[in-house]
């Protein structure tokens, strides 16, 4: 178990250091260190990511840095999508889900690697406001995908909020954390049922302790992040994710 | 710090943890030891992975598929004879270690964790 807790700490640290993207390590830690079967790990990851995101959201909530209209516009389709993703998970194999996960991991890493521009420039100029139906469809699609692979999808949501919703960066972070928490919990809720039908059960103690350690790790990571060159760290982490994604695919094909 | 160094550090940490987690799966009977034991005494082989994993490939000699993380594992054990010898395997040896622990607690005395499915397959055990 100790190794799983170290893994949880690393997930939390990378989450705090890098912002979105760090939580993607939860699934591999659960599979390779805690030895959970793929499908169970993906479900548990949703619960853990939801809990850590919610904990991260609290400081923003206290500062009232939440854009509630975006929460509804992005959050509701996302919740429906993740719920749907969990339903689909009842009909596909764990190996398929894990391969899809490896693919998402590589895509996330490539996005992370290319992300050179300082997003803060967009601050205060909400120009592009896309049609609401496009936002809803995107929310649904991203939701289904994240539900199937057990990630929060923050790496997709933050750019979407800034670009599609035209939200300033200061509001985007808190808002996206709340959206991630809501949609993860929605998928997690459905997974409890889906897994019960497949005669599998989740390890609640693992979820609880992992979430706590992860939340603490992310606080520490956030404190340290100002002292570390974020760009290089992000690139290094992205390359690491690509290698891991390749390894996971190789092991499962 | 340059990017390459960060990548190397991350990889070393990841593989270090992975290696330790494999090693940690305590008191695993090696595939060779398992073969030896199967020759001398009869025993029941239990695959403790999920039905889903079992379907995708398992040892030909496996007698049961009792999923250790399902709620039914304990009841399934009630059907077994406590004086028999049992060999458990899973994907990596970790879950079968847990299962062996549960069985020991229940009063089974001759329970062996024989490790991960891939290792057994590599060691020459027939799969299907």
From TrEMBL, chain A:
It comes from the Bacteria. The chain crosses the membrane at residues 42-62, 83-111, 131-151, 158-182, 202-221, 233-250. The keyword S-adenosyl-L-methionine does not apply. The keyword Transmembrane helix applies. One of its GO terms (cellular component) is plasma membrane. It is a multi-pass membrane protein. Keywords: Cell membrane, Membrane, Transmembrane, Transmembrane helix. InterPro entries: TM_pro_TauE-like, TSUP/Inactive_protease-like. It is found in: Cell membrane; Membrane. PANTHER family: MEMBRANE TRANSPORTER PROTEIN MJ0441-RELATED (PTHR43701), MEMBRANE TRANSPORTER PROTEIN YJNA-RELATED (PTHR43701:SF2). Belongs to the 4-toluene sulfonate uptake permease (TSUP) (TC 2.A.102) family. This is Probable membrane transporter protein.
Automatic annotation (TrEMBL), chain B:
CDD domains: RHOD (cd00158). Pfam families: Rhodanese (PF00581). Transmembrane segments: none annotated. Residues 39-128 form the Rhodanese domain. PANTHER family: FAD-DEPENDENT OXIDOREDUCTASE (PTHR43031), PYRIDINE NUCLEOTIDE-DISULPHIDE OXIDOREDUCTASE (PTHR43031:SF1). This is Rhodanese-like domain-containing protein. It comes from Fodinibius halophilus.
